[in-house]
Every structure is written in C-alpha cells, then in structure tokens.
Amino acid sequence: MVVAVILILIVVGSVVFHFMSPWWWTPIASNWGYIDDTIIITFWITGTVFVAVILFMAYCVLKFQHKEGRRATYEPENKKLEWWLTGLTAIGVAGMLAPGLFVWNQYVSVPEDADVVEVLGQQWQWSYRYPGEDGVLGTSDARLIDSDNPFGVNPNDPNGQDDILVEGDDLHLPIDRPVKMLLRSIDVLHDFYVPQFRAKMDLVPGAVTFFWLTPTRTGAFDILCAELCGTGHHIMRGTVIVDNAAEYDEWMSEQETFAELAARAKAEEKQQAGLGTPTGDGFEKKVSLVVNEDTAKPIQ
Amino acid sequence: MANIAPTDAGYVPPAEVEDTELHDPQSFITKYIWSQDHKVIAIQYSMTALAVGMVALVLSWLMRLQLGFPETFSFIDEADYYQFITMHGMIMVIYLLTALFLGGFGNYLIPLMVGARDMVFPYLNMLSFWVYLLAVLVLMASFFVPGGPTGAGWTLYPPQAILSGTPGQEYGIVLMLASLVIFIVAFTMGGLNYVTTALQGRTRGMTLMRLPLTVWGIVTASILGLLAFPALFVGGVMMLLDKVLGTSFFMPTIVELGEQLEYGGGSPLLFQHLFWFFGHPEVYIVALPAFGIVSDLLATHARKSIFGYRMMVWAILAIGGLSFVVWAHHMFVSGMNPYFGFFFATTTLIIAVPTAIKVYNWVLTLWQADIHLTLPMLFSIGFIVTFVNGGITGLFLGNVVVDVPLSDTMFVVAHFHMVMGVAPILVIFGAIYHWYPLMTGRMLNEGMGQFHFWVTFLGAYLIYFPMHYLGFIGVPRRYYELGDTTFIPESAETLNAFITVAALVVGFAQLVFLYNMIHSFMKGRKSSQNPWSSASLEWQTPQKPPVHGNWGPSLPIVYRWAYDYSVPGAGRDYVPQNLPPDQVGDTDDPQPIGGGPVPAGQAAGVMEANK
Ligand code: HEM
Ligand SMILES: [Cu+2]
Ligand SMILES: [Cu+2]
C-alpha cells in the first residue's frame, strides 16, 4: 500500500513540478524556436511513457502484493504483446526522431546570404572579427599570433586588411539577419553558448567550426563558455548585443580595422624606437610564414 | 517453446570435460590474501571498490557544498573544484561501478550461477585483482603529488588536460593516465576470465538459454569492455606521449597565454572519438550487469518467471552491439562534421527500442505476480523509476538538435546521474541485500535497510529530478560558481542549496548502510539455506557460504532454466535448476546437493557426470 502510494506521488509530483515550477527555459531570442518545439514533442511522448510505466507498476504493487496462499501466474512469454509493445515504441521513437532530424537539417544548412562573424576564444576571454567592407574574412593562422596581431590575421592577405577586430568589448549582431558564426580557438576547447539563442558549438584549436542563427530580439545577452577550459572556465564570459540596423551600423563605423590597428602599432613602435627604448625581441618578427590552408579553412 | 519452458525440463547433455582439479589454499595468506578463489577475489574487488567509492562520495559532498553555498567555503577554490569533479566522475564510473559489477559481482556469481568450481583461469583472476589495486593506488597517489590530481574533467579532453591552465597538469594527469592504463590491464585479465568461464565452464545441462540474466548481463558487459577499453588504452598512451615526450597526436598549433608552444598538427577531436568509442559502451558496461541482476531480483522476489526471457537476452545482445555505433552522440556540438549528427541520432534512438522492451518486461514480470516487498524488491522498483526517468531524458540528448541547447548544462549532469549513477547503484544495493546472506551466512538488518532504501531512493530523486530544470534555464555544468548572469533567477540558487542539503542527507544514509554491513557481519540474524527460496544455482551449494570448489564432491546437474517460480503442478512455488524432474512434485524443502542424503536418481546422474 505505502509503496504504491509513494509511486503514485512520484508521478503526480513530477508532473505537477513540471507544469508549476518557476524553472523553464529562458525566453528565446533567435530563430531556433523549432528546437523548443521538438523538445515539447519529446516531453509529451516520453512523459506519457513515464507516467504509464510507473502507474502500471504502482497498480501491480497494490494488486499483486503477497498474501497468504497467493501464487503468481505462470506466463513466461507472450509473443503478441511483446511485438505490440515493440511496434508502439518504434512509432514513438520515430515521432521524436523525424522532427529532430528535420530541424537538424536546418541547423547544418547555413543560408546563402548569411553574414559572417568570427569568434576567437582563448583562456579566458572572447574576441570577435568582422569581415569589413569586402565581406570576406582574411586568412589567419595561430602561428602568426603575437601581441600586435592577436588574431593571427595574415598581413599579406588583402581580404584581411579591412577586417574589423573587437577585443575586450561586446559582440554586436544586427536583428533579423542570419549570421554564420565561425568559431576559432587558439589554445584549448571552448564552447560559444548564449542560452537565449539555444544554439551552441565547440571552438576547436586547429580547426574552424561554425553554426548559424538569426537574432530575433534586441537586447544584451550573456555569452558563456560551455566546454571545460581550465580554472577560469566559469569566468569566461562575454556579452552579445542585438541591435537594430541603425544602431548596428553606427557601432560598426566606430570600430578599427586590421590595417588601422597595424599602422597604429607601427607608429607606436617608431615612437618608442625614437625615444631610444629597446624593442622586445620578436617584435620585428617576419610575417612571411606560409598560411596553413588546412587550419584556415572552415570544416564543412 | 524452446528449451526454457518446463516442457523440456530434464534434458541433460552428456558430460564433455572432466571436473576441475583445484589447488586448495594451504595457509591464511593463500586463503585470504593471495587467494585464487573467485569468491575471495570478488570480496577483495568489492571492498576496494567501495572504499575508493567513499572517496568519490566525499568529493561529491564538497562539490555540492560549493554549488549550494558559493563563496562560503574558502578552502574550496576553482582548482580544487575542478579536481573534485574529475576524480569524483572517474572514480564513480571506472573504479567503483565497473570494478564492482564485473570484478565484484561477476567474480562471485558467474562460477556459482553456471555451476563451475571456479573461474577458468584462477591465477589470472588473482592477478586481475592485484593489478586493479595497483591502479587504485596510483590514482590515489595523485592526491599527494605537487599540483594535486588532474582537474581536466573525467573526459580528460586535450589540449586542456595537459596545458598549464588546468590544475594537476604537472603530475596529476600523468598518474591519471597511468592508472587508467593499469586498470585496463587488470580488466582485460578479469574480462577474459568471465567470458571464458561463462562459455566453457558451464556444468552439465546449463545451456546458454538456461543461464540467469545476471550472467548474460555481466558477460555481455565484459565483452563490451574487452572491445571498448583498448580505445581508451591507446588514447591514454598517446596523450601520455604528448605530455611526456612532446609528440602532437592531439595537439594542434597552440598559443598559450601569449606564448607559442612547440606542438602542431594534431587533432583534439581524435581523442574525443577514441574516448567516446570507449565511453559510450562504458555506460552499458555499467548498465547491462544492472539489467541482468535486476531481472533476477524481480523474478525471485515476485515469485514469477521473468517475462519474455528470450526477448531479454536478445535485447541485451542488441544493446551491446548497438552501443558501438552511437558514440558520437556525445560530440554533437564538438565541431565534428555536422552531418554525422544524422547517423548518430538515428542509431541512438534505435537503442531506445530494445531498452524500452527491457523496461516493459520488468514491469510485466510484476503483473499477476506474488510480490514480496523485500529490500531487494524495493531497490528494484526504485531502479525502474530512476532508470525510466533517466532513460527518457536520454532521448532528449540523443536527438541531436535537442542536445544543442542542453549539452554541457546541468540537464546532462541530471540525466547521467539518474541513468548510470542512481539506477545502477540502486541495483547494487538490492543485489547486496539479496546476496549478502549467501556471502556471509547472515541477513542484513531490515530496519536499517528500510531507512537506507527510502532515504537513498527518494533523496536521489529529489536531487536529480529538479536539476534537469536548471539545465533548461541554461545553467552550465562544471561551473565553480555561477557568478552574475542576466538569465539565472534568484530562485535557482535556492534550488541549488536545497539539492545540496538533499545530497548530504543521502550521503549520510550510505554511512548507515556501511554500518549495517559491518554490524550484520558479526551480529546479523543467521540466514537459512536459501532465504529467498531462489531457483537459481548459486543458492544450491552444499555449504553456506559456499567453500572453495563450491560444489563438494560432485558438480550439480541442471535440468531447467533459472526462473521456474510458481510453476503449475510443482510442489512448491519454486523449482531449483538442479532439482531432478521426478522431485518437482515434492512439497518439502528441496535439499541442496551434497547436503543430506542424495536421492537415488540424482546420485546416478552425479556419478555419470564424474566419469
Ligand atoms: C549522491 C551521490 C552523488 C552526488 C551528490 C554527485 C554530485 C556530483 C556533482 C555536484 C558533480 C559536478 C557537476 C558539475 O559541476 O558539472 C558530479 C559530476 C559527475 N558525477 Fe556525480 N554525484 C553523485 C554520484 C555519482 C555516481 C554514482 C556516479 C556514477 C556514474 C557519478 C558520476 C559523475 C560523473 C561522470 C560526473 C562528471 C564529472 C565531470 O564533469 O567531469 N556521480 N557529481
Ligand atoms: Cu572556455
Ligand atoms: Cu553515450
């Protein structure tokens, strides 16, 4: 009796908790509402099975508990019942898998007209690179990275000269425009995760990974690192600001390009040299290294 | 019906091999320390696993204190926290659950259940334990080296695992990898033994389809281990080389804190594939023995034959096979080729079908049964609840696109604790309450057991059920503290504090259980010969606990499967596997073989078996 009642309470409690608790997903701010829909379908199918199985068990415990003289029925198999259950389960599973794969197909198919933004992760901060006027990111290589070229942009690549570099500041995205996030790490694995966007993906050193989204709501959202990356993992935070078009353009016009940054570094260096300050060794490092095509290409 | 039903009971094939010669122990040392007796080795394995499991349990308390009450405990800093989760996770999965199910229960039960005198290779079996102990010692040593144990997470992903931003990168990671490699050596010796014994050591009449599901579960898990651990082995060796010799198997070009490292050209994803090629079957290495054992507990304590035995066997084999083609569902957002997602989501959801069949058959076993609510039965019911709960959240994470928002959040932590933490551990407890009388000749204390069950089962549910919803909010896992965010409500902190309190209470209940085991060993009520009136072979030995060689002068002969409960027309509500067909109608207690006068029919069979 007690056991059956507790089993029933577990079912009722779980269902009530599910519908009444204050904890649910954060309001969405991207086009990935389909993901939420798939989760809802999954909840209904699996929730029904959970409730049915536990209540059935509760009934058995109540009804068939031992009493003096009771004997169990001898029924080792029931082929028909077993096949029925197998078939129903297969249908339920297909009911979840089909919408899941359908949405996944969208997740992996980036729209042709998507903007491109690069996210660069390192222990324990986020930086961003935009392709600039020409709409093309310059090639890059981790081996080119030094204090003057924190992104390792290939200085000989004309596409890279107008790239916009954002360090130590927020990421800005325009609302309602699909954007392909290219993800790059220069040290360990990280993961670019904005709960309101639903989407996430690991950053893998030595490769360029990606995902895409369309922001659908303006505002400021937290960026978290979702792949353990050392003692600073939990403080690797950032902010993404979704702007309307005008705000976005204004912000963009205030940013520095790679060429401007390089010129400024040169000037500072000249000035320092003029003052007789010794330049650190490696400062004049030749930047004629061959760019590694393999690592600079996004894996697709 | 095939040879599982009573219609063909009585068929016994001729003996094929001679009875084994065993080297009886000569002294205390050979009896209890350098023992080659599978039962002693099983207990050595189990005690070591439980001891190291206590370390993991204490670590979980420390982690929960930090999560429930951040900025309260100055003695837990970031590095400590990451070291705690790593050691906790690795110990729980490998050194506790794998070792206890296979080295502990596998060792104890396989020879007894198949009617063998011991493992087929007793010496190798002994070595397996001592090498396992060495692996544990090497792992524990990492707590005492400079820099402490590794904090790379139990997944040990490079490059992070061997770079300086991660605690324990000096010696901790080396000891961790070395310990894993040693563990795999130990496991291989044990695993080969379990499989060979179940295939070759079966007594006369013990056909494969008469084996208890416990044996099916443990043996299939051992086969999975033999095929999966090598992937971890090579991954571990390669990472050791990267760390110690500076090779670049897993290391691409890296700029670490402004400095260019010597590494270049390696692939971090390669390690993840190797790890999860091992790691996913590992889940089933833990789950399949639990599936098998719980089937036997349910049948015995519900006095009903397990429902759909043949389907259960096929489901175990299907799950075992499929478990090798789903590994990359742990890598949906790892940056691997996204088209893999279609394949691995499909295979993963297909596994749900045989798994669901097992669940149905467990609950259908309770239908029209004669349910005794003993402790093993209670723990089995607890297992079904937590396993179904954890299983369905697996359908979320396996369905690639649903995994995207949920992966690396507390939803995952809740899911895997429910399905491979709580559920198998409830089976372990049920199994200990069930077989303790066989191992010690005494019963565990019922009152303490009830307390232990209700606190552990309900407490664990209260810990992990609400935790899923933290994951929905978006709370990431492996976070030392949440800090300031715009999306996590105040109430989530309250929930975290509640979970911590629940975890400490559940932890306390485990201490009661340990006390029960020690107390009952000395003072427990004496058990009868077959306290649960079980039909399977391990309860039919002449002595309780069984002595070296298990069966006295002659091996048992098996006439039927292990699930003849409540058979119509039988004298009692169970028919032991070795009860000769002509005695099935008797109403008095069946005699264990060798105990008491041997009935004429059986004596003849025994002599034949010994020819
Ligand atoms: C009452 C008992 C337990 C408690 C309170 C507990 C608590 C925790 C906590 C707080 C974490 C860290 C979560 C995070 O920050 O990401 C964790 C991680 C983990 N636990 Fe448990 N745990 C318990 C039992 C178990 C068991 C029985 C297993 C066996 C499967 C297990 C396996 C793991 C694993 C694999 C991890 C992941 C470690 C990692 O992220 O690298 N735990 N546990
Ligand atoms: Cu990170
Ligand atoms: Cu898996």
Low-confidence stretches of chain A: 276-300
Quaternary assembly: heterodimer
Task: Using the coordinates above, name the CATH class of the largest domain in chain A.
Answer: Mainly Beta
Overall mean confidence score, pLDDT of chain A: 87
Let me know the CATH homologous superfamily of chain B: Cytochrome c oxidase-like, subunit I domain
Strand arrangement within the widest β-sheet of chain A reads 3-2-1-5-8
If you consult CATH, what is the topology of the largest domain in chain A? Immunoglobulin-like
Strand order of the largest sheet of chain B: 1-2
The CATH architecture of chain B is Up-down Bundle
End-to-end C-alpha gap of chain B: 32 Å
Cα end-to-end separation of chain A: 58 Å
β-sheet strand percentage of chain B: under 5%
From the 3D coordinates, which CATH architecture of the largest domain in chain A would you assign?
A: Sandwich
Helix count from the secondary structure assignment of chain B: 15
Number of helices of chain A: 6
Task: Report the CATH superfamily of the largest domain in chain A.
Answer: Cupredoxins -  blue copper proteins
From N to C, what is the helix and strand string of chain B? HHHHHHEEHHHHHHHHH
Name the average pLDDT of chain B.
90
Written description of the protein model:
The complex is a heterodimer of chains A (300) and B (611). Chain A contains six helices and ten strands, in the order αααββββββββββααα. Chain A has helices spanning 2-20, 33-63, 79-108, 245-253, 258-274, 293-296, and strands at 115-122, 125-130, 164-167, 171-174, 179-185, 190-193, 200-203, 209-213, 219-225, 237-243. Chain A has a five-stranded mixed beta sheet with strand order 3-2-1-5-8, with no helix packed on it. In chain A, helix 2 packs antiparallel against helix 3. With 611 residues, chain B is mainly α. Chain B has one domain: Cytochrome C Oxidase, Chain A (Up-down Bundle). Chain B contains 15 helices and two strands. Chain B has a two-stranded antiparallel sheet with strand order 1-2. In chain B, a hairpin with a 2-residue loop joins strand 1 (255-256) and strand 2 (259-260). Chain B starts with 27 loop residues before the first helix and ends with a helix. Chains A and B meet through helix 1, helix 2, helix 3, strand 7 and strand 9 of A and helix 3, strand 1, helix 7, helix 8 and helix 9 of B. Bound molecules: protoporphyrin IX containing FE and copper (II) ion (2 copies). The site of protoporphyrin IX containing FE (HEM) has 24 residues of chain B, from helix 2, helix 3, helix 12 and helix 14.
